[in-house]
Every structure is written in C-alpha cells, then in structure tokens.
Write a structure and sequence with these properties.
Length: 152
C-alpha cells in the first residue's frame, strides 16, 4: 500500500499544502442533532410520567413499553452525537476558550446515560440545559451567535 501511495504521489504531485481542523468539512458538525434526540427523550419522559397505570388497560402497558423504547433509543442517539462532536470537532485550542469543555461533555454523556436508564424529569431537563451550553460553546468557536431552539 505504501508503494502504491508513493507512486500516486510521484505521478500526481501536489503544489498545495492542505490542512483541516476536523475530520470532515466544517458544517458537518452541529449540536442540533443531539438537541433533537435529547428533546425526544425529554418528551417521552414526560409522557411516561403522565401515564395512568391504574386504568387497568393493556393499551397503557403497550404505550409505556413504546415510550420507554423511544426514550432509551433517543438518549443513546444524543450521547452518540455528543461524543462525536466532542471527539471529532473540538480541538485542544478550544480548551483555552472553554476550560470546562471536557467536564461539560463528560456531564452531558453521564446525563444521557441517566436519561436512558431512569424516568427522571430532572435529569432530562438537566441534559437539555447542558446541551444548550454545548450549543453556545460550539457556535462561539465559529464566531456566531445562534439561537437555541426547542421543538416544544
């Protein structure tokens, strides 16, 4: 493989030096996907807490199982989106701007886990607040002030 790469470089020499600060082109990364997933998990948490198990209907048990499955799936998706943003977008230079960057992401990941395994409105709302903070950090690194919107 090295020989092939060397041969290609010989045949097609580059006159330009290329560099990038992330794995993909800027614009690929956006904390909105984590916010959408976390907001879905928050919505499911609210719906679970609003169910009335005393009605004795089988539909309630079915609804509960669907809400739990969606909540867990969306909390895991939020965690995945945050971890990609943390590990692929943010670089050491951003730590100077945001000394609490690593702790903020670590707390967000832990909150995703808590939202996944619990039915805690408090943790779901804390996750949304932490993602709001990450949203602000992210857009500040791009020199932009982007409003944090929620669907509900």
């Amino acid at each position: 493989m090295k020989n092939l790469t060397a041969k290609i470089k010989q045949l097609f020499p580059s006159k330009h030096i290329v560099s990038a600060h992330c794995d993909g082109p800027c614009g690929v990364y956006d904390p909105a996907s984590a916010r959408i997933a976390a907001e879905a998990a928050l919505s499911m948490t609210k719906k679970i807490l609003a169910l009335d198990p005393s009605d004795g209907k089988h539909a309630t048990a079915n609804t509960l199982s669907r809400y739990v499955a969606i909540k867990e799936e969306q909390a895991h998706l939020a965690k995945t989106e945050l971890l990609v943003l943390w590990t692929d977008y943010f670089k050491p230079a951003h730590l100077a701007q945001f000394p609490d960057l690593h702790d903020t992401f670590w707390q967000a990941a832990k909150l995703c886990s808590a939202v996944k395994v619990e039915v805690s409105l408090e943790h779901a709302e804390e996750l949304m607040a932490t993602i709001n903070k990450i949203h602000s950090m992210f857009w500040a690194t791009k020199g932009r002030d982007v409003t944090f919107y929620k669907a509900s």
